[in-house]
From TrEMBL:
Protein name: Lipoprotein
Organism encoding this protein: Nannocystis pusilla
InterPro entries: vWFA_dom_sf
Keyword check for Signal: yes
Origin superkingdom: Bacteria
Region (Disordered), start-end ranges: 45-105
Record key words, sorted: Signal
Low complexity biased stretches: 47-97
Signal sequence, renumbered to the chain: 1-23
Keyword Protease listed: no
Length: 377
């Protein structure tokens, strides 16, 4: 219904955004599909969308901000020209195991030299109509957080979905395995050849678009908690030495960003089981115990289905489609995040957010300030 307005907003977001993020989304006209796609058979790019965004060249300006962290290079045939930031010198080296070693002087955010950022993102069918809301969040994340991340000695930035991601290579279609391809199955091209973004990729907006272009064709039985604990090695230690190639580093500062429009329920209204391996009363203790320094190197962000205070909830109908419609309140996920000290988490909503503009600016300014404080910067 309001989709044309959302699309008009999305096209105005950034000159770097190619529109490939809209591939596979429903449409009624070419204008719904951005600058690089056409509306074919009611779907942007056609029912089996394969897009090849045009070459993008980034020119330097005198007042530069963070690169847009939402856009990506979906295929190996795309040629992207970027302008190197001459104020930054290489700060990391990579070993054959994918472990980054901090190098150079003066790098780090206060005491925090190495940063791991893990996005746990719901890609189930109920997320279809929230694509542009997430794009708003990810764009603002790029504007607010990427300048801060560039100060680190090393960065690991990865995405996992709430079930096994079906577009990964077959051997890495496992819960907790990092996303390495977009929703069309086109591999994401990370600079260092790892299954996650590192410092050089922060200046590659098309690469980052690929990373977040996960679609909404995932399994409706969302398991964000199991996905989180699998990625950090509590449930499946083999992932970090296998598919994830050293993504999680116990000594690094870990930031978890959880994006979900449903709670992690055991036997919910749709008959799904959700995460079961770790009892919810142990979630927080288990996470802090994984870090050798406990809470000192941990921060969480939740973008959940709950409405903002004083506003009505977005209507949630669990019986519509296989995965429900709207946004569900998330007492378990919210309780998990809020069990951390107040200065170690930030929460906002997927509900009652009108895409377009800077809906998440205040949230990510809070995140940036609190991570700096946690690191003594």
């Amino acid at each position: 219904m309001a989709r044309p307005l959302f699309v008009a907003w999305a096209l105005a977001l950034s000159a770097c955004f190619t529109g490939g993020f809209l591939s596979g989304q429903p449409c009624t006209a070419d204008s719904d599909c951005g600058p690089s796609l056409r509306c074919e058979a009611g779907v942007c790019g056609g029912p089996s969308a394969q897009t090849s965004p045009t070459t993008t060249t980034t020119a330097p300006t005198t007042t530069t901000t963070a690169s847009d962290a939402t856009t990506v290079e979906p295929t190996s045939t795309t040629t992207t020209t970027t302008t190197s930031d001459t104020t930054l010198s290489p700060l990391t080296t990579t070993t054959s195991t994918g472990e980054e070693e901090t190098t150079g002087g003066g790098c780090g955010i206060g005491r925090c030299k190495d940063l791991d950022l893990l996005f746990v993102a719901d890609n189930s069918p109920s997320m279809l109509l929230k694509t542009l809301i997430l794009l708003d969040f990810i764009t603002t994340f790029g504007n607010e957080m990427v300048p801060e991340l560039r100060q680190a000695c090393s960065v690991h930035l990865g995405v996992v979905t709430t079930e096994a991601y079906p577009h990964n290579p077959v051997e890495c279609q496992k819960l907790g395995a990092l996303v390495t391809a977009d929703n069309n199955g086109d591999p994401c091209s990370f600079t260092e050849g790892l299954p996650y973004a590192t410092l050089p990729d922060l200046d590659m907006p098309l690469t980052l678009e690929c990373l977040f272009n996960i679609g909404s064709d995932g399994h409706p039985d969302e398991k964000p908690i199991d996905a989180l604990f699998s990625t950090v090695g509590a449930l499946d230690p083999s992932l970090n030495t296998g598919c994830n190639q050293g993504f999680y580093r116990p000594s690094a500062f870990l930031t978890v960003i959880m994006l979900a429009d449903e709670d992690d329920d055991n036997n919910d209204a749709q008959g799904h089981d959700g995460s079961e391996e770790i009892f919810e009363s142990f979630w927080t203790g288990s996470l802090t115990n994984i870090k050798p320094t406990g809470i000192d190197d941990l921060y969480m962000v939740g973008l959940l289905g709950d409405p903002k205070m004083g506003q009505p909830a977005c209507a949630w109908d669990p019986t519509e489609n296989d995965d429900g419609f709207g946004t569900e309140t998330t007492p378990k996920l919210r309780g998990f995040i809020q069990s951390l000290p107040p200065e170690r988490y930030a929460i906002d909503t997927l509900c009652n957010v009108v895409p377009g503009g800077n809906a998440y600016g205040a949230l990510l300014q809070e995140v940036r300030a609190e991570i700096r404080a946690a690191c003594g910067a």
